[in-house]
Amino acid sequence: MQQPQSVALLFPELKELLKDKNYTLLKQVLRECNPLDFADLWPRFDEEERLQVFKLLPAKAALKLFEILDVEDQRKLLSMLSEDNASENVAPLLENMHSPDLAKIFNKMSPRLVKKMTGLIKRQEHLAHIDLIMQYSQNTIGNKMHPEFVKLGPKVTAKQALLRLQAILRPGQKEHLYSLFVTNEEGKVIGALSFQDLVAAPPDEVLSELMSSVEGIKLGPEMDQEEAAKFFTKYGLNSAPVVDEMGRLLGILTLKDVLSVMREEATEDIAKMAGTRAKDLREESAFKIVFFRMPWLLVTLCGGFLISLIIHHFEPVLAKVVALASFSPLIAGMGGNVGSQSATIMVRSLALGHLESKIDQVRAILREFRVGVMLGVIYGLALSLFAYTVYGHQYGVEFGLIVAIGMGTSMTVAATMGAIEPIVFHRLGIDPATATGPLITTITDIISNFTYFALATLLLLRH
């Protein structure tokens, strides 16, 4: 059997065929390629090339590629296909994609384009599911759930249930076999069972005897997606029913959906730690990126002004002991690193729900304070020995002592602030990931520089 060729190896050839508009040969080459490889190389094609490649791919390959593209790329591609009047390429995509995936794409499309897209969907049930999902905001599990599920009653036998699954499920819906829920006549979910349980059960055994309780795992559609991710992690769930206020089954949230949410949240947190936003990672406009990053860099700039004023205030001591300036960047830098470490740990703990109570939060802050003190003592002593070795003959033991206290103060303050700020932001309803990076570094620099130069003034200028 011939193996699909790597698109990376054929990329120059594909570009040449696109340039020459040799679509007949290009279509033959594309049939030998693995469509999944196109996702990595997608940014290297311009918009017109993407449109032509997608239209020439076989239907199944095009669907595979479309499903793994980023949402923004999916929206752009659908828009281009619509403008190109390529409904024969769009309709199969819309018909075969899961409702939550389509809802995510439609969320930020213009109403005109959404109307045009939904007009190509023939299955009314599919349209109803999309409408249901789009009723909920993007950060809720109602916007992530799968409304497609098989209705199984408590009096149905295992054999009947298997026959019903075989008759109803379409290709691409195999993931729902791991998320089977039993409902009563009113549509209220009353139990759950796995596909493995169903296959292994005696043919005549009814589902009411096979199912397990779902009382502890029912989720409301308005629940925040991050809270749902914590819930799945805590209880080790593979799936959970999403129900309305009456307990009626609206849809199913799967582990795959939760992992996607966790990946999105992790990307967002990493971006915020750098003082930017997740969309910066793929944003092409330099002006937009500058606009996104400016606020936190402004915090750093204002902090820098304050640090400059502090240093200016202590110019007399710097003029007499120039060596003090050589240690200031090192002390501030070490403090910033420790602060970022503490903040990262706290943000992660908050995200996983490990710091829900005030007692846990206080314990975490005290732990990071102790860590800062111990690190400050260790590195302060090491730096003081170095300072005394280099400058001891000029300024004596007191110079090494100042450097040690400066380092100790910097690392202790940084570790403590790195622990406190995420918790404060969390209580204020602000994403705690925002607390890391520029803010902690700036505060640490201000406090450590002030302490360092104030001590130098007291101990060195009194003689």
What is the CATH architecture descriptor of the largest domain?
Orthogonal Bundle
Query: What is the H-and-E element order?
Result: HHHHHHHHHHHEEHHHEEHHHHHHH
Question: Spans with pLDDT under 50 lasting ≥5 residues?
Answer: none
Structural class: mainly alpha
Give the overall pLDDT as a whole number. Answer: 80
What is the CATH superfamily classification of the largest domain?
SLC41 divalent cation transporters, integral membrane domain
| CATH-derived topology of the largest domain | Tetracycline Repressor, domain 2
Please bin the fraction of helical residues: 55-70%
Give the strand line-up of the largest sheet: 1-2
Give the overall shape.
Answer: extended
Domains (count): 3
Task: Compute the number of helices.
Answer: 21
Short recap of the structure:
Helix content is 65%, strand content 4%.
Strand-helix topology:
Layout: H1 7-20, H2 23-31, H3 38-41, H4 47-56, H5 59-68, H6 71-83, H7 87-96, H8 99-106, H9 111-118, H10 124-133, H11 158-168, E1 180-183, E2 189-193, H12 195-200, H13 207-210, H14 225-235, E3 239-243, E4 249-254, H15 255-273, H16 286-313, H17 315-320, H18 323-351, H19 358-395, H20 397-427, H21 438-460
Antiparallel strand pairs: 1-2, 3-4
Q: Could you characterize the architecture of this molecule?
A:
The chain folds into 3 domains: 7-140, MgtE N-terminal fold; 158-269, CBS-domain (Roll); 285-460, SLC41 divalent cation transporters, integral membrane domain (Tetracycline Repressor, domain 2, Orthogonal Bundle), CATH 1.10.357.20. The protein is 65% helix and 4% strand. The protein has helices spanning 7-20, 23-31, 38-41, 47-56, 59-68, 71-83, 87-96, 99-106, 111-118, 124-133, 158-168, 195-200, 207-210, 225-235, 255-273, 286-313, 315-320, 323-351, 358-395, 397-427, 438-460, and strands at residues 180-183, 189-193, 239-243, 249-254. It has a two-stranded antiparallel ribbon with strand order 1-2. A two-stranded antiparallel sheet has the order 3-4. Strand 1 and strand 2 form a beta hairpin. Helix 1 (7-20) runs antiparallel to helix 2 and helix 5 crosses helix 7 (87-96).
